Amino acid sequence: MSAAQSTQSKSGPPEPELSTSPSPPAPPAERLTATNQFLGTVSQPVIAAFCAGGVAGAVSRTVVSPLERLKILFQIQSAGRDAYKLSVGKGLAKMWKEEGWRGFMRGNGTNCIRIVPYSAVQFGSYNFYKRQFFERHPGDSLTPVARLICGGIAGITSVTFTYPLDIVRTRLSIQSASFAELGAKPTKLPGMWQTMVSMYKTEGGVRALYRGIVPTVTGVAPYVGLNFMTYEFVRQYLTLEGEENPSAVRKLAAGAISGAVAQTCTYPFDVLRRRFQINTMSGMGYQYKSLPDAVRVIVTQEGIKGLYKGIIPNLLKVAPSMASSWLSFELCRDFLVSLKPEEETLLQ
């Protein structure tokens, strides 16, 4: 017997070595199953619409951010305030001269943070309500009234979830503008979180973050309902015979038309929303007592046109905003739906 064998017999059998190498990758079949499960989930119509809605919101708001901010600055000017009593071109030039590119994008980051869940919930809940209450079978055609109802409920759902970010976005859009009432601008403007905390602490807690939600919901429900109803109605007429869907250009046209119709019909509620959102803002507040009181004061002091302040930059942004929103939504949704695995693969 050798020395090595003698030593082994005395100390017993050698202990197995501990492996420090990473665990082997999952077998191809298991990886395939997990991937198919994920693809099967994101390709579900409601989930695909939810994800695509978030993408559509971010794209559309970024495209028209300068016009969106200019619209807000026009909207909050009452009688006697004329810092932005300018044409659209001169207003944009003023923003660029005073604040540069940051002025064009002021509040857009918060707006995108808001609009991604807002748009996602809106598109997702619209598809959910449509399937839950009106579609007996997938793919059934809805009546215009059913689309209007689903869109209205979807609008209320989305705005309730994301309203605090909307009011903060309005404050961020105003705080760097050259209104005399705001006084000298601070060297460092507060950001989204700081503005939200300040409002919560100094303006009434949670109620401060939902100030103006009544005129918002009052306007959002018909706006979203009209938007969905008009888009799907126009889209039918822009789909050529023999095609399932219109081309990208015709989708852009349908989105522009639906946005213009919905915005024009509900615009006064948007003005009221902005006024109430700054109702307690230092130097800029209006102290309206209620929705009827706000309408009375605005019409008395500013005339009927006071309820349509900012509508020109708003209509200018509607076409590119809604067109890019609907186009990016449909492209993203169709892509996600197309990821659905074949039934044979799922059954393996």
Structure description:
It is a single chain. With 348 residues, this protein is mainly α. The chain has a single domain (42-182, 211-346), classed as Mitochondrial carrier fold (Alpha/alpha barrel), CATH 1.50.40. Helix content is 70%, strand content 0%. The chain has helices spanning 3-11, 28-42, 45-63, 65-75, 88-105, 108-134, 144-174, 192-202, 206-209, 213-238, 248-277, 291-302, 311-338, 343-346. α4 (65-75) packs across α5. The longest helix has 31 residues, at 144-174. Mean pLDDT is 78; it is low at 6-11 and 344-348. Solcar repeats lie at residues 44-132, 142-237, 246-335. It is a multi-pass membrane protein.
Content-based structural category: mainly alpha
> The CATH topology is what?
Mitochondrial carrier fold
Strand content: under 5%
Terminal Cα span: 57 Å
Reading off the top of the CATH hierarchy, the class is best stated as Mainly Alpha
- Point out poorly predicted stretches: 6-11, 344-348
Overall shape: globular
Can you tell me the number of structural domains?
1
| Helix segment tally | 14
**Total count of strands:** 0
CATH architecture label name:
Alpha/alpha barrel
Radius of gyration: 27 Å
